[in-house]
Amino acid sequence: MERLTRKINRSSHSLSVTIPKAICDATRIKYGDEVSFAVNEDNSITIRLVVKNDEVDEQMIERDAKMYQKLKPAMDYLKDK
Predict the structure, then answer these.
(1) Sign of CA dihedral 33, 57, 51, 10
(2) Which one of 2, 34, 65, 66 is CB 3.0 to 4.6 Å from 50, fit for a cystine?
(3) Contact 36, 30 (CB under 8 A)
(4) What is the pLDDT of residues 23-71, one digit of tens each?
(5) Strand (E) positions, the chain?
(6) What's the pLDDT at 56?
(7) Is the CB of residue 36 less than 8 Å from the CB of residue 52?
(8) Is residue 20 a contact partner of residue 6, using CB atoms and an 8 Å limit?
(9) Using alpha carbons only, what angle is made at residue 45 by residues 9 and 17, rounded to the nearest 5 degrees?
(10) What's the whole-model pTM score?
(11) How many helices (H) and strands (E) does the chain have?
């Protein structure tokens, strides 16, 4: 994904920034979701979607299923060794 930029806005007594639609689509972030912020040692900011323990991350399940299908022939081969 290309690097996207946004300007910082003022919202009451806080600052705000919008998340580009391309990033929302890629990460499945939607209105009302909770995110966490972390400042890294190099002063970059990491934003993560907060996933509660009782929620299932469908994107993770899809990735795991694809990885399993990709590795299944090797696992089948190795199980008989």
Answers:
(1) negative
(2) 34
(3) no
(4) 999 888 899 999 999 999 999 999 988 877 655 667 778 888 888 898 8
(5) 9-11, 14-16, 35-39, 45-49
(6) 65
(7) no
(8) yes
(9) 15
(10) 0.54
(11) 2, 4
